[in-house]
Every structure is written in C-alpha cells, then in structure tokens.
Amino acid sequence: MFLLIDGDDVGGRMERNLLRNDIAAFVASSNAIDAAIRSLAAVAEGIDGVQVVLIGGDSILLEVTENSVEALSTALMKSQNIRDFSFSVGIGPSLRECYIGLRMAKTTGKGKIVRFSEDAEVCQS
Q: CB of 97 within 8 A of CB of 118?
C-alpha cells in the first residue's frame, strides 16, 4: 500500500517570490518547505510499518502496511496544525490509486487525507 504526501499551493508561493524578484524570500520559502517535508518524513519513519520511498520537492512517497495507516494518518493530521502550509495525502493499494486519492484530496478542499479503493470505487477522507 502507498501513501503520497504533497504540499498544497507550494508552487504558487514559490512563483510569487520569483515574480516579486525576491531571492531572499524564495530561498527562505524553499528552505522552510524542505525542512517541513523532512520533518514529516521523520514523523512517518517513526511509525512501525512505514518506509520512505522518496522525498522530493514538496512531496513524500511512502510504502505502508495496512496496520500503520491509522497511526500515520493521525500523526499527519496533528502535524498539519503546526506547519505554515498545508498538505494533502492520498492513500491507495497501488501508486495509481494513491495518486487518485491525492488528486481527490486536493480537488475537494486540500489539507485532507483521502483513501482510494478501486474495488469500492469510493474515496474516503
């Protein structure tokens, strides 16, 4: 099973700094986002049954066991409240379903965790 974490509206924040020609704010935002993503990855790695597959940009791909999903979801939602940006999460049995869950989380309000199940053809948040 896979879980994909992605920062919400991070690209827009970075683009604003570029358009303002504000290199200091661009670098500061980039560093803050990187630190926040690495912190989230560390939280995830501390949960049994969770393996970090990839950290890149404002995203983290995790491989998780079914038993770790609830503890991980709870930890991520708690972390959501201490960051200066929100993130959305998709969960699914394959990379494809995981990505669909992520897209559903982002298109239905962001800052959500959505679990996609093709068998049930529903998304649960």
A: yes
pLDDT over 90 at 81, yes or no? no
The span from the CA of 62 to the CA of 38, in Å, is 13
59 residue type, one letter: S
Say what the pLDDT of residue 123 is.
Answer: 52
> Are 62 and 2 a contacting pair, CB within 8 Å?
yes
Buried/exposed code over 18-53 (b: 16+ C-beta within 10 A; e: otherwise)? eeeeeeeebeebbeebeebbeebbeebeebeebeee
Mean pLDDT of 45-67: 95
* CA–CA dist 65, 62 (Å, integer): 10
